[in-house]
Design a protein that fits this description.
With 437 residues, the protein is an alpha/beta fold. Helix content is 35%, strand content 18%. It folds into two domains: 3-199 and 421-432, Rossmann fold (3-Layer(aba) Sandwich); 218-417, Glycogen Phosphorylase B (Rossmann fold). It has helices at residues 28-41, 57-70, 90-112, 161-170, 179-186, 231-244, 259-264, 287-295, 313-317, 335-342, 388-400, 402-417, 421-432, and strands at residues 3-6, 9-12, 44-48, 75-79, 117-120, 123-130, 133-134, 142-144, 148-151, 173-176, 193-195, 218-222, 249-253, 280-281, 284-285, 302-303, 322-325, 347-350, 365-367, 370-371, 385-386.
Length: 437
């Protein structure tokens, strides 16, 4: 790959795979002609930095975004992260094999030019943001010669001046997944912020033609186990609820691949409704023993599936009666909550942060009481502490109003039908072309 060094910038000539096929280095006149042809075709060269997986919310978003982009004839991808995901077809696997060589060459160039910013000529770049700004890896060395976007979903509201300056000067647009994230950044003087809501795959998450039996009454709680997800609130509420309704069950899908690291960092000190934390047992987090020993919930009333792939989640959701999310904060709109809504499972949502973008036309039950987060927690502007008593009240309503509950679930499903990955990627492509309207 040829390039021309200029100060602390390194401008990549477009002979890398993906660009070479479009803009061969065969003379300036011919190059200009080909560039005009490319622009007339409106082909978008897009550097893609999100990491696709099947086990985390962010990974599932990246996976579905990548799959949709691969199918678009007007987009040619430059993968800035190695991708190992299940695709929809053998063609998709062939595409990833072709991108592998491109990715290795780009990473080699980054390694050979440590600390330099590398420009992908004629391309736009979407970098993955992670608090305080970038995810680890060499991809942050790349910028687009056309448009630069930062995909930034965050909950921590404390930003250094250096971080804010980088967002303001390096990026044409900051792409966030909720209006709350946009308001946080707007309040800090950033005006180049655009919302692009996440969604779910309707081919996987949808109601069954014949509803699955929801007996016994089963409460679903999902999301990786951590302070902001509020599993201590769920445990405290269900512990009291099950004494009134011994037939009720709690299905806790709480797998957290980073739990041991978070435990060492005293990450869970803000839990208000638990005097202890789950322990590791043979490398796995023993949520069931914690619910039994710390909260007094009978073992037979608890189901803990452990780590499962995203495509297995619908079967669990459809066995449940209601899903509860007393989350303290969501930078996006909560992937697992949207998956539940898409399946027609009625949801109880805390009225704070990203959840606010899901609440519409009685499509869910809402936890209205949102106390400010107190104690040692910092960066929690706009977060909310849900009331255990109010969550119990919502569960009581659900238990005794099954017909109304089904109607709420149907409205949630209808709401999610309007959110598709095509719509999400259409918005992303428009932003990458420079349309910020």
């Amino acid at each position: 790959m040829a390039g021309v060094q200029d100060s602390n910038r390194y401008f990549i000539a477009p002979e890398i795979p993906g660009l070479a096929r479009r803009i061969p280095d065969s003379g300036s006149v011919r190059r200009e002609q080909q560039l005009k042809k490319i622009h007339s075709m409106e082909t978008l060269l897009l550097g893609f930095d999100l990491q696709a997986t099947s086990f985390t919310g962010a990974g599932v978003v990246a996976r579905n975004t990548l799959l949709e982009l691969l199918e678009r004839p007007d987009v040619e991808l430059i993968l800035l992260r190695e991708q190992r995901i299940e695709l929809r077809s053998d063609t998709g696997q062939d595409l990833l094999a072709r991108f592998d060589r491109q990715h290795r060459e780009l990473m080699a160039m980054a390694e050979q030019n440590p600390g330099r910013l590398l420009t992908l000529n004629n391309a736009s770049v979407l970098l993955k943001g992670a608090y305080p700004l970038f995810s680890p890896g060499k991809s942050k060395q790349f910028r687009g010669g056309r448009i630069n976007l930062l995909n930034f979903v965050f909950e921590n509201t404390v930003f250094s001046e250096e971080c804010l300056r980088e967002m303001r000067t390096r990026f044409d647009g900051i792409v966030v997944a909720s209006n709350w994230c946009r308001s946080v950044l707007n309040a800090r003087g950033l005006t180049n912020v655009r919302v692009n809501h996440q969604t779910v795959d309707p081919d996987i998450f949808h109601p069954d033609p014949e509803p699955v039996s929801q007996e016994p009454f089963t409460v679903f709680s999902g999301g990786k186990f951590e302070f902001r997800k509020g599993q201590d609130i769920v445990a405290a509420a269900f512990a009291r609820f099950v004494t009134r309704h011994p037939d009720a069950r709690l299905l806790a899908l709480w797998h957290n691949p980073w739990y041991e690291t978070m435990l060492k960092q005293d990450y869970f000190q803000g839990f208000k409704n638990a005097t202890s934390l789950p322990q590791l047992n043979n490398g796995q987090v023993d949520f069931k023993s914690w619910l039994v020993q710390a909260h007094g919930i009978p073992a037979e009333n608890i189901v803990c599936p452990g780590k499962i792939e995203n495509k297995q989640v619908p079967d669990l959701l459809k066995r449940c009666s209601v899903a509860v999310f007393p989350n303290r904060a969501e930078g996006g709109t909560n992937i697992i909550a949207m998956e539940a809504m898409a399946c027609g499972l009625p949801c109880v949502l805390s009225r704070n942060t990203g959840h606010l973008d899901l609440v519409e036309n009685a499509n869910c039950l809402v936890l209205q009481e949102q106390a400010p987060i107190r104690g040692d927690a910092s960066g929690t502007e706009g977060w909310g502490e849900s009331s255990v008593d109010e969550l119990i009240d919502r569960l009581e309503f659900c238990y005794t109003h099954r017909q109304e509950l089904r109607e709420i679930g149907l409205r949630g499903h209808q709401f999610m039908r309007n959110r598709t990955w095509k719509r999400h990627v259409d918005r992303l492509v428009s932003l990458a072309r420079g349309d910020f309207s």
